[in-house]
Structure formats: structure tokens, C-alpha cells
């Protein structure tokens, strides 16, 4: 390409000989000292009117005899205002003629004078033109001016383009090249070719075959066919291939990006492109895929469900959903990337928005929430933690939600709360039973005193016996309640289990419905056991409370004890 850029875009300058101007030409002086143009010189008149270049006629005193419209426009004066004026009074014209010494050279040289002149205009911009001065007889001189400023500007722009082109060649992180078409001759290649392939750029001019040797022999035929096919299409194309280093090392994962360039007639006269080494990119892609796979396996292995959502062009969409969340929400498989949240199952929408429909506001919110959510069918209690996902600039780009199943701990907490409540009620009942037992002591004391003072045949004795027996039963019941509600240190002592159950009978009877029968079937041969009588009584009461709600009206609750001999259990407890 350098040979084309180095070629100068020249112009063929027209030297107008005097005979071509239609001589002889007659000029006559006017009464005011001016001049007027005759009408018999049709050739000169046609030149004045038809040429697009400025043309002027001067006399031997350098007075302007005539000027065509193009000269008036070029010198920014009216044509009539130019006639009869000295060239030295027209600033631009005077500077042009002085810069090239045109008038002095016309006097000393009978041949046409031609020169290219460059000056600055009134605003300092470069101005370039070519002036031809031709003597046409009678002391007259014809000035023909061709404005070549456009050529100057074009050359300047071309140099700027060349500098930009060279800078791009040097700055591109790939091997840039230019090739002439249709001969497929390499014109230029960037210095990066030495770093990638081991060849210096200057080596390709005397050895054009090096261009083909940049491609691995196994890929050359395919690359050549794809190259010509791409040129035939006339559009930019890519060729992926394996390269060959100068020391015969393989260079995999190279891509040649080619751009065909057409001339003004639409024919391809060259193509440009660059060869990019994608080995580092491929390595990063492999590492990225491995990282994504590890992240996916990690997310699928943790005990918490993870869901990431973000606003999309069609609405809020799923970015990531792990297997654990699908299990928690009873889904067949995790939600796929790009799934619209509005099309996701209701449980997923509740996890993100808490049952609200303002998806967009929730997803772009910067608040952090840690709360409990309850799901139905089946009933589950989930702990939901939601936080914003921020981009590189710190702005909220999505939302991440982690979910843990806390149903078991939630149920245990409820049971603990209920147990604490029952403990408080037991303490309260114990206090009431203690006071009530004191009142019963008074009733029993006075009842026993009255009973002793009443003879056997007295009709009042039987009611008094009922009062004393009822007070005694009430006292035993409150005593059992006091014993059950009393908290004490665990003691391991010999205990008769049958006696513990018998002492708990009244307490158990009070917890059951009147229509439920309570039967005791206790083995009298039951040996003593080591334990705490109070804790055993609490165990019996808790067991009865567990089955109380399952007994229908008129049911029977039977408590029995017996001895079972099991293998491996010693005869005596140590």
C-alpha cells in the first residue's frame, strides 16, 4: 500500500499558447483613460466566459484590462471594479504575482511563464495556486490562475490518514496487514508479526511466500479457500486457523479478520485485516467455565436455597437458582436462567416478594431483610434473607435471596414455649394447691373434732364422715399436684413404680374427661428400680397428656406394668 500512497496525485497543467487565444485582439483607449474589449475576438471571449479558472488581461503597465467572472469570485471583487485597476492595488493578486516574480519574469522571458505558488490568505489558511503568464502581443499579458488549494488540502488530509494508518498499525494488539487485489500481493504488515510468528516485516517483501507459511500446513488449503470465498462475498469475514511459528511451533486459536475494500468503481482493489491471537482468551474462557461449574456445584451442595433475580427487558427474571431451593419449594427442577418471575411458581414469587406483586420495586430495593416465611401444602417454615446485588459502580442490579428450612427448630421452639408455659402454670398451680391444702387442713381438723364428739348412733355422724373423707381425698390430690410441680435435684433412689402410678391416680383422673375410664393393671411382683420418683411421675403424666386428645367419649385408658426379661440385661441393676 505504501507504493500507492507514495504516488503523487498530479494534475495536467494547460499551457495556453498565444495562437490559441484567437489573435489578433483589438483594444482601444476610452476617453476616461480606461479600456474596452472588442467583439471580434471570439476565441478569447469564449475562454473568458466558459473557463472555470480565473483569467485576467493586463497591459504593459500592469493595469487590468479585463477579468472574467471566475477571477472576480477568486479575488472577491466585482468584475467591473477590477477593470482599470493596477494589479498592485488588488492585495491577493499582488501577493501572488510578487511571490512568484511573475511580472519581472514576463518582461525578460518571451516564453510563457508558469509557476506554482503557496501563500497564506487573510485568515492565515494555506492558499495554493498555479499561475500561467502568457504574452499575447501589443504589450498585453494574459494571466491564467488555477486554484490548487483543494489539492493541498487533499494532500494534507492524505498525510494525516497515512499517519493515522501507521499509528493504528503500531497500536493494534494484533498483526495488521494490507494486501493488493486481485494479485493477492502483500503490501504491508505490522511489526507485531515478529512477536507472534518470529518473522520481521521486511522479510515479506523479498519472500512473499512467507505469508502462506504463517498458516499450519494442515490448514493452508482450507484457509485459502475460505479467503477467496470471503472475497467473493465482498463482506467482512473471519478465518479461524492454526498458525506456524518460524521455529515450527504450532500457534492454535488464531483468527484472521478480513475487510475487503472496493474502489470508486466498485471493484475490489485491496483488503485489510488483522490476525488476532485468541489463546489467552480461550484460556480465560476455560477458566471461566470451570469457575462457573465449581460455583454451580458449590451452590447445589450447600444446605441453603439460593435465588438471584434481576430486572430484564421483559420483566424481573431469574439469574440463578440452585437445587436446594427447588427441593424446598417442591419443584421438579431448578428454575432456568432467564425465566420470568411472573411465570415462576407462586412459592418462588412469595420467596422474592413476600406475596406482593411489586416485583420491580422489590428487586431494585437496597434494603436487607431477614424474616420468617410460612408456606402451605405442606406447611413449612422458612427463614428468608434478602439483600441487594450491586454492580461495579455500586448501583443495585438485582437481588439475592437465601432460604433455610427451619420447620424443625420452629416446632421445637413452639414446644419449648409451651413447656415453659406449662412450667409457669405448674408453679402457679403448686402455689394454689399449697394454699388450698392449708384450707383443707382446717376443714379436716374441725371435721375430725366434730366426728370425735358425735356418738355412733347420731345421724350427723355419717355426713361428717363424708366431709372428712372428701377433705382427705382433696388433700391427697393437692399433695400430688404439689409433688408434680415441685422442682428438685435429680435423685437416684429405690422406687416402687406401682406406688408412683397409684399416687398419681388422682392427678391423672383430673386431666381426663369424665366419660373416659382410667384402669390400672399393676403387676404386684414388680421389683424396685433405681430412679427419681418425681421425674417418673412427670413422665407418666406427660404420657397420659399425649394420648388424652386421641381418646373419644366413653373410651378407656389402661395403665399396666409388668416385668420383661430381655437378653443382655443384668438381673440386678448396679
Automatic annotation (TrEMBL):
Keywords: Kinase, Phosphoprotein, Transferase. Residues 185-234 form the PAS domain. PROSITE patterns: HIS_KIN (PS50109), PAS (PS50112). Residues 431-574 form the Histidine kinase domain. SMART domains: HisKA, PAS. It comes from the Bacteria. The keyword Lipoprotein does not apply. This is histidine kinase. It comes from Eiseniibacteriota bacterium. The lineage of its organism: Bacteria, Candidatus Eiseniibacteriota.
Amino acid at each position: 500500500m505504501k507504493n500507492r500512497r507514495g504516488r503523487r496525485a498530479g494534475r495536467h497543467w494547460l499551457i495556453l499558447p498565444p495562437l490559441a487565444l484567437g489573435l489578433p485582439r483589438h483594444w482601444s483607449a476610452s476617453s476616461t483613460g480606461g479600456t474596452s474589449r472588442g467583439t471580434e475576438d471570439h476565441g478569447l471571449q469564449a475562454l473568458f466566459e466558459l473557463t472555470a479558472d480565473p483569467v485576467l488581461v493586463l497591459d504593459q503597465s500592469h493595469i487590468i484590462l479585463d477579468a472574467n467572472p471566475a477571477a472576480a469570485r477568486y479575488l472577491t471583487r466585482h468584475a467591473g471594479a477590477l477593470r482599470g485597476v493596477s494589479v498592485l492595488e488588488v492585495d491577493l493578486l499582488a501577493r501572488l504575482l510578487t511571490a512568484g516574480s511573475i511580472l519581472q519574469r514576463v518582461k525578460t522571458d518571451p516564453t510563457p511563464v508558469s509557476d506554482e505558488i503557496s501563500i497564506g490568505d487573510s485568515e492565515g489558511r494555506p492558499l495554493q495556486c498555479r499561475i500561467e503568464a502568457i504574452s499575447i502581443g501589443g504589450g498585453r499579458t494574459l494571466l491564467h490562475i488555477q486554484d490548487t488549494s483543494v489539492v493541498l488540502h487533499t494532500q494534507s488530509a492524505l498525510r494525516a490518514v497515512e499517519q493515522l494508518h501507521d499509528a493504528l498499525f503500531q497500536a493494534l494488539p494484533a498483526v495488521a496487514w494490507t494486501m493488493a487485489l486481485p494479485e493477492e500481493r502483500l503490501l504491508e504488515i505490522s511489526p507485531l508479526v515478529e512477536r507472534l510468528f518470529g518473522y520481521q516485516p521486511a522479510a515479506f517483501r523479498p519472500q512473499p511466500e512467507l505469508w502462506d507459511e504463517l498458516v499450519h500446513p494442515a490448514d493452508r488449503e482450507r484457509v485459502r479457500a475460505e479467503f477467496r470465498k470471503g472475497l467473493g462475498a465482498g463482506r467482512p469475514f473471519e478465518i479461524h486457523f492454526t498458525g506456524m511459528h518460524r521455529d515450527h511451533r504450532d500457534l492454535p486459536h488464531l483468527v484472521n479478520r478480513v475487510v475487503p475494500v472496493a474502489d470508486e468503481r466498485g471493484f475490489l482493489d485491496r483488503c485489510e485485516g488483522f490476525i488476532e491471537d485468541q489463546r489467552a482468551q480461550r484460556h480465560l474462557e476455560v477458566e471461566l467455565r470451570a469457575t462457573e461449574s465449581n460455583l454451580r456445584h458449590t451452590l447445589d451442595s450447600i444446605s441453603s436455597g439460593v435465588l438471584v433475580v434481576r430486572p430484564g427487558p421483559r420483566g424481573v427474571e431469574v439469574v440463578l437458582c440452585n437445587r436446594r431451593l427447588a427441593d424446598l419449594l417442591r419443584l421438579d427442577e431448578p428454575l432456568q436462567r432467564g425465566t420470568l418471575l411472573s411465570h415462576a411458581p407462586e412459592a418462588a414469587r412469595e420467596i422474592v416478594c413476600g406475596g406482593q406483586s411489586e416485583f420491580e420495586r422489590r428487586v431494585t430495593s437496597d434494603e436487607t431483610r431477614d424474616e420468617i416465611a410460612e408456606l402451605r401444602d405442606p406447611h413449612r417454615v422458612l427463614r428468608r434473607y434478602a439483600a441487594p446485588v450491586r454492580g461495579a459502580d455500586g448501583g443495585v442490579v438485582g437481588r439475592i435471596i437465601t432460604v433455610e428450612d427451619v420447620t424443625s427448630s420452629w416446632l421445637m421452639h413452639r414446644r419449648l414455649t409451651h413447656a415453659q408455659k406449662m412450667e409457669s402454670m405448674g408453679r402457679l398451680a403448686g402455689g394454689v394447691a399449697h394454699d388450698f391444702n392449708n384450707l383443707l387442713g382446717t376443714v379436716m381438723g374441725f371435721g375430725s373434732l366434730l366426728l370425735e364428739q358425735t356418738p355412733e348412733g347420731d345421724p350427723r355422724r355419717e355426713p361428717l364422715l363424708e366431709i372428712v373423707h372428701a377433705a382427705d381425698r382433696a388433700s391427697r390430690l393437692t399433695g400430688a399436684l404439689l409433688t408434680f410441680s415441685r422442682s428438685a435435684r435429680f435423685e437416684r433412689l429405690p422406687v416402687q413404680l406401682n406406688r408412683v402410678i397409684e399416687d398419681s391416680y388422682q392427678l391423672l383422673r383430673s386431666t381426663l374427661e369424665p366419660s373416659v375410664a382410667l384402669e390400672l393393671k399393676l403387676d404386684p411382683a414388680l421389683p424396685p428400680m433405681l430412679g427419681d420418683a418425681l421425674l417418673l411421675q412427670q413422665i407418666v403424666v406427660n404420657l397420659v397428656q399425649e394420648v388424652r386428645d386421641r381418646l373419644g367419649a366413653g373410651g378407656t385408658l389402661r395403665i399396666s406394668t409388668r416385668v420383661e426379661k430381655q437378653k443382655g440385661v443384668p438381673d440386678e441393676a448396679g
